[in-house]
UniProtKB/TrEMBL annotation:
PANTHER family: DNA HELICASE-RELATED, OS03G0423850 PROTEIN. This is ATP-dependent DNA helicase. SUPFAM superfamilies: P-loop containing nucleoside triphosphate hydrolases (SSF52540). GO terms for biological process: DNA replication. One of its GO terms (cellular component) is replication fork. CDD domains: SF1_C_RecD (cd18809).
Length: 129
């Protein structure tokens, strides 16, 4: 997952899921620069230098980060219900096939229902326009 906005006009922004491709194929090639961070002697008693790529390994992402993404498999943990308007829709609609969605509900709950947070004020505003 990309951690910084590298080139938003080409879709390279914070939260973009990326795949490391070892061999060529039908894909876009993206150069991800190595960032160097240096601290001078005035700031620290010891010179400090760090080199890193603005990416991290991601096995999971927040619902907000998944908006606009297409993923093959979705696992949704609803031990805590969603807390914002439209989050459940975003979480379930980013999967490419409904058979690849797995949802975990609390064990003490004998149902497969959850709260879908909807702000009716927003919907009323859309209808009136």
């Amino acid at each position: 997952m990309l951690l910084w906005n590298l080139d938003p006009s080409h879709g390279l922004h914070n939260g973009t899921c990326m795949f490391l491709v070892v061999q060529g194929g039908d894909c876009d090639i993206v150069l991800i620069p190595c960032m160097s961070l240096d601290a001078n002697k005035e700031e620290f008693t010891v010179p400090l230098c760090c080199h890193q790529f603005p990416v991290c390994l991601a096995f999971a992402m927040a619902i907000n980060k998944s908006q606009g993404q297409s993923v093959q498999h979705v696992g949704l943990d609803l031990h805590t219900p969603v807390f914002s308007h439209g989050q459940l829709y975003v979480a379930l609609s980013c999967c490419t096939h409904p058979h690849n969605i797995k949802v975990i509900f609390p064990q003490d709950q004998n149902t497969t229902k959850t709260t879908n947070v909807v702000f009716t004020e927003v919907l009323r505003g859309l209808i009136e326009v």
